[in-house]
């Protein structure tokens, strides 16, 4: 499929190199939500015994996030479609981003007491919803700051910047708040609560460059007739049917990537839990491992972005998923080896996660019909959320079948990654030309 001549919003990256860097700084800033809020700090804080009995709190967290995932699945493609047709992709990126910033800052009010658990859960769930909405518009802008020849390295730069941003912010949180360098009193959860304020400021500041440097979208999607919110679902149905007729492999890729991306999410979701419960890491050691993991993931993602442009995204994804499966099995089989096993095989896992995530985004960016980036990336978010129960369910199932041995949960995540890989293999790779 041939795209239209470049406009002000789709100029080649070589003509406007600052656009790619400004765009990738959003990924750098978003580490505040991905790494600090949802993975290594706030969710760990919420599931501590300060908020209730172990097991009960985790169950409530899972239920609330499941509801949030359902809302994302229902709303994401339509919000993406409407940002395409309204010509306000950047505006909605700004709106959703700063809602997440406000919700993150509000986490400072979550006191370590069971009566505040639902406040924390609601803020976390709402943050997840609006973060995904922002991500739909952000991913859709990839075609505005790259060309088919550079999309792999630009996407890799974004993911890599996200990991590096996570490193810097986690270092600030660990030494400044957890280790007490800033002199924050430990009472009433203040180290974590103030870390949320810093995270909010971090995301808010680094989201500014993309809003200033990348022009608003004015491509072919903005020329489509605008319809009401509910009528957007009817249009969405017609567009999906058309996508199935014209680009069936795009639809199959959306399905296969939904499965393996849930496995990738499981690696990070349960990584900290496994480090602590199976390998005996302390809370501080978990953060130190997280910093090292982000270093490895950031370097590998940026480096493999160049390879993506040379050989295509599908081989990158296949190799990365294969590496994840082997590394996961090593973590399980060698678990009696203690810290050294998790440090080596665990870091190997993180080396493959970033390239798989980045190449998945570029695979889709290369084949989306021009003007439908927001809509299709909305479907990308929706399909991912539609199966977001897979990794948690597989993890829990294997733990239960083993007599509540957390280490067996690793096999559940590996199984999800394997299924995603097998579903991907028949998908034909195609590249949109300009």
CATH topology assignment of the largest domain: Growth Hormone, Chain: A
Instruction: Quickly give the structural class.
Output: mainly alpha
CATH class type of the largest domain: Mainly Alpha
Write down how many β-strands occur, each being a DSSP E stretch of 2 or more residues. Answer: 0
Order of helices and strands: HHHHHHHHHHHHHHHH
Q: Based on the structure given, which CATH architecture of the largest domain is correct?
A: Up-down Bundle
Helix content: over 70%
- Shape, per Cα inertia axes: globular
Question: What is the total number of structural domains?
Answer: 2
Mean pLDDT: 83
Count of helix runs: 16
Radius of gyration: 21 Å
Catalogue the unreliable spans: 1-17
Alpha-carbon distance between the two ends: 8 Å
Strand content: under 5%
CATH superfamily of the largest domain: MFS general substrate transporter like domains
Sheet with most strands: none
Would you kindly provide a written description of the structure presented here, covering whatever features stand out?
The chain has 434 residues and is an all-alpha fold. The protein has two domains: 15-150 and 162-214 and 224-234, MFS general substrate transporter like domains (Growth Hormone, Chain: A, Up-down Bundle); 248-368 and 389-428, Up-down Bundle (Growth Hormone, Chain: A). The chain has helices spanning 17-40, 42-46, 56-86, 89-106, 117-140, 151-178, 190-206, 208-213, 229-246, 248-277, 283-311, 313-333, 339-367, 373-386, 390-401, 409-424. Helix 5 packs antiparallel against helix 14 and helix 10 (248-277) packs antiparallel against helix 16 (409-424). The longest helix has 31 residues, at 56-86. The model is unreliable at 1-17 (pLDDT under 50).
């Amino acid at each position: 499929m041939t795209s239209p001549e470049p406009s002000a919003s789709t100029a080649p990256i070589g003509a406007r190199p600052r656009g790619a860097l400004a765009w990738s700084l959003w990924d750098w800033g978003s580490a505040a939500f991905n790494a600090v809020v949802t993975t290594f700090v706030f969710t760990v804080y919420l599931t501590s015994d300060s908020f209730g009995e172990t097991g009960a709190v985790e169950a409530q967290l899972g239920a609330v996030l499941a509801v949030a995932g359902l809302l994302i699945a229902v709303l994401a493609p339509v919000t993406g479609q409407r940002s395409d047709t309204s010509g306000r992709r950047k505006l909605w990126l700004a709106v959703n981003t700063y809602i997440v910033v406000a919700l993150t800052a509000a986490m400072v009010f979550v006191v370590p007491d069971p009566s505040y658990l639902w406040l924390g859960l609601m803020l976390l769930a709402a943050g997840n919803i609006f973060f995904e909405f922002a991500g739909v518009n952000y991913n859709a802008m990839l075609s505005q700051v790259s060309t088919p020849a550079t999309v792999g390295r630009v996407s890799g730069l974004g993911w890599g910047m996200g990991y590096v941003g996570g490193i810097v912010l986690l270092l600030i949180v660990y030494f400044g708040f957890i280790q007490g360098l800033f002199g924050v009193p430990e009472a009433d959860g203040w180290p974590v609560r103030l870390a949320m304020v810093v995270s909010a400021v971090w995301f808010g500041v680094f989201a500014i460059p993309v809003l200033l440097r990348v022009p608003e979208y004015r491509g072919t999607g903005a020329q489509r007739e605008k319809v009401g919110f509910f009528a957007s679902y009817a249009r969405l149905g017609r567009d999906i049917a058309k996508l199935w007729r014209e680009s069936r492999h795009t639809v199959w890729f959306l399905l296969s990537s939904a499965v393996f991306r849930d496995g990738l999410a499981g690696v990070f979701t349960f990584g900290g839990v496994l480090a602590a419960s199976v390998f005996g890491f302390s809370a501080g050691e978990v953060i130190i491992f997280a910093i090292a993991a982000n270093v490895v993931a950031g370097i590998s993602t940026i480096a493999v972005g160049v390879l993506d442009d040379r050989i295509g995204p599908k081989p990158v994804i296949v190799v990365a998923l294969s590496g994840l499966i082997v590394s996961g099995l090593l973590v399980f089989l060698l678990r009696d080896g203690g810290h050294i096993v998790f440090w080596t095989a665990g870091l190997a896992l993180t080396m493959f996660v970033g390239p798989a995530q980045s190449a998945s985004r570029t695979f889709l960016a290369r084949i989306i019909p021009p003007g439908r980036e927001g809509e299709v990336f909305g479907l990308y978010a929706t399909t991912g959320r539609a199966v977001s129960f897979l990794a948690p369910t597989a993890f829990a199932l294997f733990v239960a079948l083993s007599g509540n041995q957390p280490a067996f949960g690793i096999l559940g995540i590996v199984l999800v990654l394997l299924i995603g890989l097998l579903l991907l293999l028949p998908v034909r790779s195609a590249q949109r030309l300009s």
